[in-house]
């Protein structure tokens, strides 16, 4: 039996209903909601037209759906972080971004090259799999902003804070690495474009993204909380649509001005969160985005499951399996563990933080974005990324609940 047309509305309605119930049903079990939705997508693939839902057949749809999901997630996690940004306060984040992430990319690219991949393809697979995911890692991230009188910004536990802040920033910082792979494949020798990449794609666009995020977050925060006219003071009217307007507006402005939009959105959320920190309007904004993020995430996972049933993993070979398994089991845990030495984290906290480098929607977006420049290798790239994301969803989804409970018991003891 095949479902198409109006039947898809029935499937969508049932999927959303299941999505509302699943998190409550699975709360006590070592099965996360993403695992359940991925499984539902695998089953759904037997009754829908799988050819029209493949990321290879519909790269534009895949890119934009993943892009919107990441944007909403980035704004949500930025609003959820209580800790004000600072060099010492965010020490674990800087270690994960500037030590663990480049080491992880280099290790994955090096492994791919040793296994026979062309240098540009090996670099792309390393860059695409670089960002940890702000979408699928909700079980191990901070749960929302602490507001009201007496709110203490330092109450975020170090593991949840590290994983949340890392995921918020490295989705934007993966872009220069993806461009590096694209240029290596399309522009010839490094000497012809290396300086331009360093000055513009690495530094220039990053600075623009951060500047736009700070400026827009400050301006919208002033408007929402302390505008002279009550009509513009959205915090008084409890209008949470500001969160979505800010997400899309900041991203669009950053992209128009050639900055990194993902980075701008997350920085804007942090800046807005710093305005009237104790105001409970932050909870309204975060709750609105959280619901929208859940809907988009369910859709992405269902489509991924359908694509897997439709043969997404057919081109997967031992090289792809080795890269995916090595990244999840060895490379990410080892590089993050080493990067977190001499931080305030306990040994158990370092180990859990290093282990939860969730791969997901960010990797799907970056491959859809860059895939047209690697047409000959595209089926293998999608198979490898799809396998790695599925492996991450299953392994991290099963491990999240027991490991976070273990940390809570250690803290109580």
UniProtKB/TrEMBL annotation:
It is found in: Cell membrane. One of its GO terms (biological process) is proton transmembrane transport. The chain crosses the membrane at residues 6-22, 29-48, 68-85, 97-130, 173-190, 202-221, 241-272, 292-313, 319-339, 351-369, 381-404. Residues 15-405 form the Cation/H+ exchanger transmembrane domain. GO terms for molecular function: antiporter activity. Pfam families: Na_H_Exchanger. It comes from the Bacteria. Signal peptide: none annotated. The keyword Chaperone does not apply. Keywords: Antiport, Cell membrane, Ion transport, Membrane, Transmembrane, Transmembrane helix, Transport. It is a multi-pass membrane protein. GO terms for cellular component: plasma membrane. This is NhaP-type Na+/H+ or K+/H+ antiporter. It comes from Kribbella italica.
């Amino acid at each position: 039996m095949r479902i198409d047309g109006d039947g898809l509305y029935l499937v969508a309605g049932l999927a959303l209903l299941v999505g509302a119930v699943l998190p409550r049903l699975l709360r006590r079990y070592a099965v996360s909601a993403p695992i359940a939705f991925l499984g539902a997508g695998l089953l759904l693939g037997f009754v829908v037209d799988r050819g029209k839902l493949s990321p290879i057949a519909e790269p534009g749809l895949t890119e934009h759906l993943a892009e919107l999901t990441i944007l909403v997630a980035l704004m949500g996690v930025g609003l959820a972080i209580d800790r004000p940004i600072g060099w010492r306060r965010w020490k674990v984040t800087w270690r994960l971004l500037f030590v663990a992430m480049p080491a992880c990319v280099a290790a994955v690219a090096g492994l791919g090259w040793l296994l026979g991949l062309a240098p540009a393809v090996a670099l792309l697979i390393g860059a695409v799999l670089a960002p940890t995911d702000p979408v699928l890692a909700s079980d191990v991230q901070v749960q929302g902003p602490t507001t009201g009188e007496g709110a203490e910004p330092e109450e975020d536990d170090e593991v949840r804070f590290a994983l949340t802040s890392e995921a918020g920033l490295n989705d934007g910082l993966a872009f220069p690495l993806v461009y590096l792979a694209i240029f290596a494949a399309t522009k010839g020798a490094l000497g012809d474009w290396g300086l331009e990449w360093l000055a513009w794609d690495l530094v220039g666009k990053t600075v623009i993204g951060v500047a736009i995020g700070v400026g827009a977050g400050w301006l919208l925060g002033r408007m929402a909380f302390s505008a002279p006219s009550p009509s513009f003071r959205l915090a008084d009217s409890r209008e949470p649509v500001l969160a979505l307007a800010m997400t899309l507006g900041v991203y669009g402005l950053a992209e128009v001005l050639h900055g990194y939009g993902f980075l701008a959105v997350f920085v804007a959320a942090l800046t807005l969160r710093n305005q009237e920190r104790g105001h409970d309007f932050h909870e309204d904004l975060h709750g609105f985005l959280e619901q929208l993020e859940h809907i988009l995430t369910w859709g992405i996972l269902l489509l991924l499951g359908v694509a897997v049933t439709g043969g997404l993993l057919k081109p997967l070979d031992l090289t792809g399996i080795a890269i995916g398994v090595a990244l999840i089991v060895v490379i990410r845990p080892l590089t993050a563990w080493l990067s977190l030495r001499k931080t305030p984290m306990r040994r158990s906290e370092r180990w859990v933080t290093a282990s939860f480098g969730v791969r997901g929607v960010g990797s799907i977006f970056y491959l859809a974005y860059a895939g047209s420049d690697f047409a000959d290798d595209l089926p293998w790239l999608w198979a490898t990324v799809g396998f790695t994301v599925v492996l991450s969803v299953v392994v991290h989804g099963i491990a999240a609940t027991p490991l976070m409970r273990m940390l809570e018991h250690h803290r109580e003891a």
